[in-house]
Amino acid sequence: MTTDHPSRALATFAASLHFDDIPQHVVERAVNLYVDWLGSALGGKGARPVESIALFASMAGAANGNGQAEVLIDRTRATPYFAAMVNAAASHFVEQDDVHNGAVFHPATVVFPVALALAQAARASGRDFIAAVVAGYEVGIRIGEFLGRSHYKVFHTTGTAGTVAAAATAGRMLGLSPVQMLDAFGSAGTQASGLWEFLRDAADSKQLHTAMAAANGLMAASLAADGFKGATRILEGEKGMAAGMSTDADPARLTDRLGVRWALTETSFKYHAACRHTHPAADALLAVMAQHGLKPQDIERVTARVHQGAIDVLGAVTLPTTVHQAKFNMGTVLALVAYHGYAGVTEFEEGYAAAPVAAFRGKVEMVFDEEVDRAYPARWIGKVTVHTRDGRELTGRVDEPKGDPGNTLSREEIAMKFRRLADFSGAASDEEASHLLDAAWGIASETRIGSLFEVDVRA
Amino acid sequence: MTTDHPSRALATFAASLHFDDIPQHVVERAVNLYVDWLGSALGGKGARPVESIALFASMAGAANGNGQAEVLIDRTRATPYFAAMVNAAASHFVEQDDVHNGAVFHPATVVFPVALALAQAARASGRDFIAAVVAGYEVGIRIGEFLGRSHYKVFHTTGTAGTVAAAATAGRMLGLSPVQMLDAFGSAGTQASGLWEFLRDAADSKQLHTAMAAANGLMAASLAADGFKGATRILEGEKGMAAGMSTDADPARLTDRLGVRWALTETSFKYHAACRHTHPAADALLAVMAQHGLKPQDIERVTARVHQGAIDVLGAVTLPTTVHQAKFNMGTVLALVAYHGYAGVTEFEEGYAAAPVAAFRGKVEMVFDEEVDRAYPARWIGKVTVHTRDGRELTGRVDEPKGDPGNTLSREEIAMKFRRLADFSGAASDEEASHLLDAAWGIASETRIGSLFEVDVRA
């Protein structure tokens, strides 16, 4: 599809999308992504930056006595604006929310908080909820692809593209017309922000980016419903998002096979609780260790062969001093998978600074790999070279890391990840987790979405 | 002052600034700017985009029953977050809030809403209020200068630099330590946004930018008070604001003569209610008309000789269809001053589409001028060439438009402008305006800043 006004085409698509237009397998994947997101949202409970944002929200007016949306980490009620803000912060903390490889964009953490908060406030149906979620995914992913690699070098795409994705979701929940949806895009896009500078300091901005993308997107759509006008070419215009924040933007990506290609199904689940840029190498290391029956003690050194984006994002951290920083440290991630076979929230929390892990970390280097870089971001190939203590040079490779569309998680694996996260943070007991899961798998057929935890109590 | 860590130097300055450090003439100018801002904030009452933002704020949680900050357009109480948001939207609507020429930045509209809301909530003193205001001006202006002309081509500096200015103001009001202030800068800067794309459509984003700069800056400082960490080099870092949004950033500008040069006093009052880029030519036209005793009917055509920034910002609007768009239309502004000697809110509202104005508009063209462009943005020179019906070619010139530091407004002129704006919007009666003015001139010596309107009632 080509058009001289892609912002309008994309907004019209988002405003017009109905549940019945969405193929069944896409609906099913959306439900899986919802359950996966819910686990991440619960997993953020107790995290200092998340609790800070929750405290601010409460002081700023969240607890105004008439909110119908739930803040999942503490089960309080708030207005949709603040519930979306806090749930978005929470669901990006443990670094296990989903990601679209090609867009380098985390859709769930900005889309679901908005959809859930507005659905709860309006007692909307599961069908409308799913339509709003799919609209958000399709919009956000295409904007991430459009903004390109030059954008992602400095900007956190989940913050920038995420603001418009949140607006698309909110706009669909609010039933905006195509014209209003375009206004919502304009008001959202002009607020798009999020810089990578915080990574160097292990600062708390990542959760702030998702919190504000969700909140600002919701605000943009609410304003549009009230007639507030936005720029009509905020994405592709001469002084729009790409003009300001990209040097390789490709407008054709914005409308790529709308309604035919379902980008939502290309989204990867994050199996390891680490920055996605570490996953391909982690799985490649697991593969070579399994193939040759290696123990961590057998390994002299590891070379992770990566794309430039991995070096850009991971390069700044050399000696991690916090769990969050460790999740962006290739050496720590490879050490954890070498010792535990998995780098989950518990492995990070308990093991990132352990002596054997620290020692293994020092044996890992990253090098740029031409093939991996060429394939990226469409494919995230994992390649490692392992030198063993007994002098062998072995190579490991995965073409699709675990959780990617061609190597996706089963519903059982998603439920297991959910239980691990709820248990890790203490946001829900085992029994509560079971009730939450039961209800979440059935979200698409809910007639009136309400409290998640009240369902639990009634059960 | 040179430093390898300008973000820190600037944050430390802002956190450490005390009232007694500020020269008396700077305090006096700050009070003048406050009164000028208050008029603009009242002037926004009833404006559709402003009322939309106020409605959203109220639905999102502003009216939570314990707010101590005032929303000036409707005299309701709200939390500081929402009061700052709405007052910032309101004070940027009539296009008469102040501007710093060199930074192309409107400080008042993002600084005062934050300072006033937090002062009211804490019943702070006028001395602390002034210190917070001066901190915000000094920080925001230097960041605007730092980001440079390349930034302003696409980004609305008042939205971007304004977010950090608001954080500096809020941080000073909250008594942040230098380390916390640097955190606040980090959380604010990573949220910096605002694109010029909306101008083409005459969309409502300009007030959204100031609303969110104020609110996000206040949030950033509040989070910092709670230990929320921000990037320590958000301004100059490799993935910071300049890296993402400027190609000609000059870090030396960030710390230019801190504590010696008071950039606040370089701020211009806006005499005409139009985009600042039109003012030099408007005053030059008034000058040539006065010098030669010309009436509008004597004029065949006018060539406004302008800097590139004026063409970039004003160029998009050819036929204004709204008052707001008219304020960004050189032809309309020159027509209004030609007929009325002044382009104020009333002249725009009643006259922008009048037949003689529309006819005059068609006689105006803008051309790039080498000398004007070289001087910009340090000096905003106005040059026009007028061709008269009787065949003369006359030139008009002003080296400093009315309201600029060397041609500043008197307190009487500021008060008159205040009364015009309050009357225009109906936000305050004549009597209320008198009471508000009396109190506002004395803000620096207030012991406990409270409600502005209650003072009015008690009087």
Automatic annotation (TrEMBL), chains A, B:
One function term, GO molecular function aspect: lyase activity
A Pfam family the protein falls into: MmgE_PrpD_N
Superkingdom classification of source: Bacteria
InterPro entries: MmgE/PrpD_sf, MmgE/PrpD_sf_1, MmgE/PrpD_sf_2, MmgE_PrpD, MmgE_PrpD_C, MmgE_PrpD_N
Domain MmgE/PrpD C-terminal: 272-441
MmgE/PrpD N-terminal domain: residues covered: 9-252
Family assignment from sequence similarity: Belongs to the PrpD family.
Protein name per its UniProtKB record: MmgE/PrpD family protein
